[in-house]
Each structure stands twice: as structure tokens, then as C-alpha cells.
From TrEMBL:
This is Transposable element Tcb1 transposase. Residues 209-314 form the Tc1-like transposase DDE domain. InterPro entries: RNaseH-like_sf, RNaseH_sf, Tc1-like_DDE_dom. GO terms for molecular function: nucleic acid binding.
Amino acid sequence: MKTISMVFKAPLSPQQCAFAVYLRQEKKYSFRQIASRTKMSKTSVWRVVHGQRTKIRKSKHDNIKRGRRKILTSRDRRKLHRSLIMLRQENPNFTIMDVVKRSGIPQHKANYRTFHREIRNLGYAYRPSRKKGILTDKDLKLRREFARSRLNDCSTDYWTKDVAFYLDGVSFVYKGNPMSDAIKPKNKIWRKRNEGLVMTTKGSKDLAGGKRLHFIVVISYGRGVILAEPYEKMTADFFTEFIRRNFPNLFEVAEKGESDSKIFVMDNDPSQTSRKAMATLVDMGYTLQRIPPRSPDLNPIENVFHLVRKRIEAQVKENNITHQTWEEFKQAVQYNIWSTSKDVIDKTITTMTKRLQEIVQTNGKRTKY
């Protein structure tokens, strides 16, 4: 004969719970006896009795904090938060110990895991970041139109023979200890979950992080690097004077003067495309081949800058450079810019037609270059 076990699914009333506790504590009934008297299951009786006991025990010691004492105080956590925000404004490629050092908290006060946990509790995590800006629908349209017009109206050797040179400005951040910066991961940053479209690998536009070395670099097909001039600040007046002083010689060195139109390529920096600079170009008979905004993949010189940075980083790791003066840093940057192979530059420039074709095929999206 089978024994049928009864399951009580009705909600327990306060009277039932109080009666069960009374029978257990005062009458010393068993759980089976209490279940029979109160029409509850033995499991429910056990939960009610032990839950009531726990509640009573806690109520007597509400002011007592249980668990291990916290190592970091609330003030320490506020310091970590302020330091993290400050570092993110300067350069998002930092480590947890950089945050601790900036906050002034002694590093021996807690271990790495404790600091890491506190930063995670603030809502930040080491997440992948964007490397480039977002392309809007308008940007995609401009890129498609530009690519189609250049492919239809220009010959295949337009970018190697008709364009005299490619110009752009570049900045290198000076670090007293270049090794610490070289070993940091570059594709992740400390950010919140909803900041994926806000924060990039470069962080904010105005990166501090120490002194910065600025160069105007010019490359030409068949000639390699033909100019690498340092400058302090890019302004409309400075670039206008730069055009008057250097452009005649640049077109002569590039040896593209046999063409009636003297064409060059540069990006859309406001100082370089100011009304004053554009008027000077027209007066001197030079033509700017404009490229769409937010399109560094359409200026081959950007690839050269990437190679220079990678080469400098490799030299730092290979020679284990943990200290570098400003002059040593400046010499290293200049050497690596000028030592860029002419064949590498030529190969990079010859990919322009493929870049345009890829833009047309992908409806304006970024290319792999």
C-alpha cells in the first residue's frame, strides 16, 4: 500500500507560525508533532522555528557589525574614485597601481585584489575600447561619394604621380619611464558599461600625460620622408607661414612639378584648413585634395605614424629603457621618422585605390588600413 504524503501549499498565517514556535520552545514538541497540530509540513515548521530564532538573535545585537574589518575606509574609496576620474581625463591607458599612487594611499595598506575590487565596486571595469571615432550616416555618405568620384574621375596612378606629397601633424607623448608605458595594454581602458561609445583608446581630446613632441611630417611617393619639422602649437598663422616657407621646396623635392596642378593631401584640421591658409594656397597655385572627415584611412601617412610608434615601442622593450631624457626622446622620434623605408612608404601609398574600392563595397564603412 502506497503512503500518500500531503503537501501544504496554503500560505502560512501569523497564528500558525506563532503556534509552531510556541510548541517547539515551550512544549518541546517534535517537528512531526508540530506539523500535525498546525497543518504545516515538517520543512515549513523547521524554517519557521529557526527563522524566528535567528530573527530574535539578530534583534539583540543590531549594533554589532559582523565579518572581517574593512581594510579601506570610505575616505580611501573616495580618493580612489577621484584619482580614477583624473587619470581618465589625461590618458585612459593606466593601471590600478597608477590609481593608487595618484590617490596617495600607501600601497602596502592593501593588496592588488583589494584595490581592484574597490574600483570594480565603483562601476568601472577593464573593458575593450574603440580606437576610432563614430561614423555618422552623413560621414558614410561623404565617404561613398568621395570614393566613387575618385575611382571614376582619376587614373589608377593618380595617388602616386599626380599627388605630390601627403602631409599631416603628429604628436608623441614624452614619458620619463617609457618602459612602463610600452608594456601597458593598448586595446582596453577603465570605463563603465555604458561608456562604450564615449571613451576611446586615446581618451579625451586634450591629453595631458606630460610633455608632447609635435611634428609636421611630409611623405612622397618615390622619395620617402621629405620633411619632419617640429613645432610648438598648430595655429592658422603658423601653418600659413609654413606654407609660404616650405611648399615651394616640397613640390620641387617631390618632383611632381611637371603637372599643371600641384596637388597634395592632408586631413581636415581646422588650423590647417583655415580661411587664411586656404587663401595662401590659392595665391601660390597649390591644390588641396580634400578627404572626408573622420577618415584617417584615406591618408597613408597615418600608417607611417603607426609604424614609427611601433618601432619606438619595440626599441624601448628591446633595450629595457626605464629612464629617458627629453632630448633623448626627441632624437629617438626624429631618427625613427627619417629612417622609415622608402619602399614601405611607396607600398602604403599604392594601396589608395584598394582603399577606395573597399569603401564603395562596404557602403562607406572603415577599411582595414
